Amino acid sequence: MKPELKNQFEWLGEWRNENGSPIPHVIFGGGDFAAIGSMGTTGVVRTDEGLVIFDLPIREQGLKAFKRVRDFSDKPVKYIIYSHGHFDHCFGYKPFIEECKEKGWDFPEVIAHENLIPRFEKYEMLDEYHDWINSMQFSSIVKKSGVNAHKNLKPTILMRDQYRFTLGQYTFELFHDKGETDDSIWLWIPERKVIFAGDLVQISYPNVGNPYKVQRYPKHWALAMERMLEKNPNYLVLGHGRPILEKEKVIDILSITAEAMHFVHDEVVKRLNQGKWFEEIYHEMLDIYPEKFENHPYLKPLYGCYRFAIHATYRLYHGWYDTGNPTNLFPSRSSEIAKELLKIASQEKYLEHAKQLHGEGKLQLAIHILDVIINAGQESCDETTFRDTLQLKQRILKRKAEEEPSLIATNIINNEANRLKHHLKEMAKKEKNESASNDKQEL
Ligand SMILES: [Zn+2]
What we know:
This protein is an alpha/beta fold. The chain has 16 helices and twelve strands. It has two domains: 3-265, Metallo-beta-lactamase domain (Metallo-beta-lactamase, Chain A, 4-Layer Sandwich), CATH 3.60.15.30; 332-442, Serine Threonine Protein Phosphatase 5, Tetratricopeptide repeat (Alpha Horseshoe), CATH 1.25.40.880. It starts with a helix and ends with a helix. It binds zinc ion. Zinc ion (ZN) binds at residues 40, 86, 88-89, 199, 239-240. Zinc ion binds next to helix 3.
């Protein structure tokens, strides 16, 4: 198993020890704190007066998380806190609510940031679209994302900047900081110096420039890390993956994440001020990426990645016109452009050149060239050349996906490779049927 994949299982909540046996939960902080392995991580605090739950997993894993919580404690749930409104942090609520009904317990208070309300409203407006983008983004994990926000557990307490309550022997201090979303909150428990961070801390480079999703906030992300560092925490529960229980590592992950977010933000801003356009900024940024980030165990591009973060920062301050070339202001259809290019050189020449680039290991350049033939469409091409073109692109995408560490990027690349494979199968089937019917006619 490639190490990235092992870490992806960790990220998805499939925690295993050295011998490969599953770890359902991690208990720490003197025994009252647990992190439950699921997508995403569910945090539990046991007090004398009941439980506080920080985040619920995806809808499909609600029951699994519930059973694991009940293995840890049978006390009633008094509070549920949503770190943010993403579908892997607040939709697995059903078994917890059913339990309250069965046992005649009061329903728990549900705490969220006030921006979670418009987020859920947006999900309701765009639920088919979100189902589609999430099925693309998580295609290797779930076929249907279950993001349907029409079924949700509404917050009963909305907070803005800070919120504080006590339950039993513990104080719960909640803080808002923007990062992956504009509705993120994190929890600080001073008695045991524990932070529940939600997706503000993961075992991956921050998911700050997701290709399918709305704007995220690299600079605010860095500031959130610094605010957490000010607390001098001993334990850190992440939005995905096992909690960090060694103080030295807690300080390390918060510090390096802050540094990495400041870096990507400030370097893009510097280049915007130098009058550079996206392409120049992007490639310069790839060239200057410091090794200390690249090699850091907590900044591996398992989910989010640096390459996406460059986009996020640029987009934060820039409009959609990103080349400075007016050719791109009102562009023609790519199929029309490709058809004109094929008038200059034949599709065979393009294919031959792409094969040469492929042979030289220039995979990205090769697919750019193949796209000229593909964009022009099958009607502009003889069948054999078109099929060879699709086959080569499919092979290149498969290889790129194998080499790609980011789950999001791997899924995007694999989705297209699988679509091409399906298309090639359909072409072969059609060809077979046509030749069979020709044979019949000849008989
Ligand atoms: Zn998450």
